[in-house]
Amino acid sequence: MKSNPPTPRPSTTGQDISGPELAITAWKKLLRTLAGLAIALAPIAACGGKVPDTRFYQLSAPATAAPPGDLVIALDAFDTDAGYDDERMVYRATPYRIDYYQYHRWSAAPGTIVGNFLELALERSGEFRQVTREASDRSPVVLRGRVLAIEEVDTSPTRWLARIVLELTLTDSKTGEALWSEQFEETQQMRVQKPEGLAEALSIAMARIAKRATPSIADHARKHAQTAATTATAHGAR
Length: 238
Known about the structure:
Blueprint: H1 19-48, E1 55-57, E2 71-75, E3 79-80, E4 88-94, E5 97-106, H2 110-123, E6 128-132, E7 141-156, E8 159-172, E9 178-189, H3 195-237
Parallel strand pairs: 1-5, 2-6, 2-7, 3-7, 4-7
Antiparallel strand pairs: 4-5, 7-8, 8-9
Helix pairs in contact: 2-3
């Protein structure tokens, strides 16, 4: 007795799928893909976390002001050595390497904030009638500066220092001749071991530099002004 031939199964090859069914299938594939990506990226997101906010700091000059003096001085823009010419705060734990705080920065370039500090310090010193940013006939001398170092130095886990090295030069506003030049270095222990503590300690160190430098700046500016006045009088008498 012959067996009946098997009933052929309907072939799905080339089977037409209606528009709605095709859309549902594609949507399911997309959901599975997105779910897989979410699972894969979850550990990365957990490790990365939120990007910290960037904080900005500045130096604070002494608020006490003496009555104005009789001198006029121009203040040129200050330069900064390459390793420190960055708004990111610098710190170091060894003499051979410097590092930067990525999310703690100065409000402007180091040369700018140091120049602004010294401008206020000179204005409030009682020696100067005016501190201007542009040389003129009323300002026979120009003060220039260069920041050689401005940093946090971690000498031990419990002792962090603020260090600044500044070179100041006083020049004739017309000829550019150097009348006086001196390099200053100050360190100050940080009361608080964080970037705000660095800004505070550097402000104290800068106040000491300003106090040391101001008498010399005023003395040379006064002598130069007197010499210039004497020379002008002699020329006028001829």
